[in-house]
Amino acid sequence: MDRIDVTNPIVNFLFSLLEDVGKPKAEVAAKRVMERLSGVNIVPHFCRIEDKDLDFYNDFNIIVLGLDSVEARSYINAVACSFLEYDANDNPKEETIKPMVDGGTEGFKGHARVIIPGVTPCFECTIWLFPPQVKFPLCTLAETPRTAAHCIEYAHLIKWDEVHSGKTFDPDNPEHMQWVYTEAVKRAELFGIPGVTYSLTQGVVKNIIPAIASTNAIISAACALETLKIVSGCSKTLSNYMTYNGVEGVHIKVTEFVRDKDCLVCGPGVLIELDTSCTLQKFIDMVKEHPKLQLSKASVTYQGKNLYMQAPPVLEEMTRANLTESLFDLMRRVPSGTVHVTGTTSENGKKTSGVRKLRVAFKGVDGIADMDTAGGA
Questions:
Q1: Which residue in 61, 66, 142, 345 is deepest, having the highest Cβ count within 10 Å?
Q2: 321 secondary structure, DSSP code
Q3: Among this protein's residues, is 139 annotated catalytic?
């Protein structure tokens, strides 16, 4: 969803022209690459990653991530792992594995990793690698600001709601960002605090860390190399997490992390038993109340067929009658396959996206159905 900002051309050779400012990054990047490399076809998409359905992602042989947040990575990881199926011995079926290559940078530091769902650790298996984001106490922001960041967060978290009651702040809206910057300057002047700039305002509000061209080049090269390995089979892939540190000299280290076999995203899943008479509505209610799932406003699909969709209204109306049907019947009385349940999950009061795998055993019937429960905020 990002658009090109005036600071981007400094660190990205794809955005080198002044007239690119304000245009979608994906569209301009695709255009530049196709201009330089004949025979390459790139289809850009300027939208939220959640706007694409699962079939869109399933069409690709490999997914390469260059995302800028933990939440976005977690979502795509969940989508890729939702295609994963296990056999009766809890071994991943090779034809259902969707490899991923992930890269990210923070200033002079960066990482590149290879994720083979069901084989290597997925994103959720090593979520602890990401440090918690810095949070400022509201009392400090409201009463005793001491830094430029405090003034910016005051305008962003407190002043915005006071002035724009009920209106959601959009960090990608230049007018919204300009308003926060202006209010932050006023706040800083009131307390005699220097250093509030528009670029700093963007960085604090959007949690942006300055990009370093050399770091981006090294990490993107590592990701491209690992992608080539997977696609061509020309060499063994990275095992499985590389870190780069260019703060003092150059330091590169590769660590082989171990997959969490009980991971709710890439593992075989939580086993749950259902009666063959269990209706789709009852199943949705159970998913909402299950302590390890807790997905509300669920939509359910099976083998590309919409069993029930919360939205848009036209699909909800079309699939509403299925709520009273038994899940066993809706799965054509074949208790094997993957069911996707899309909904919302909340942690610490914040709605997030994710996929939770659910293995369903129908009582009195041989076989286990692999079911993926996905939560989308």
A1: 345
A2: G
A3: yes
* DSSP per-residue codes, 231-274: HH--SPPP-SEEEEE-SSS-EEEEE-----TT-TTTSS-EEEEE
The pTM assigned to this predicted structure is 0.67
Instruction: Report pLDDT digits (tens) over 268-281.
Output: 776 778 888 889 88
Report pLDDT digits (tens) over 132-155: 666 666 777 878 888 999 999 999
Read off the tokens for 145: 């600001």
The domain segmentation of the chain, as residue ranges, is: 8-132+211-255, 149-205, 270-375
Catalytic-role residue among 81, 125, 139, 266? 139
Candidate CATH numbers 3.10.290.20, 3.40.50.1240, 3.40.50.970, 3.40.50.300; the one for domain 270-375: 3.10.290.20
Nearest to 119 by CA among 232, 268, 265, 259: 259
For residue 312, whether the previous peptide bond is cis, meaning omega lies within 30 degrees of 0, is: yes
CB-based contact 208:7 (threshold 8 Å): no
- 123 or 376, higher pLDDT: 123
Architecture in CATH for domain 149-205 = Orthogonal Bundle (1.10)
CA pair distance 20, 15, nearest whole angstrom: 7
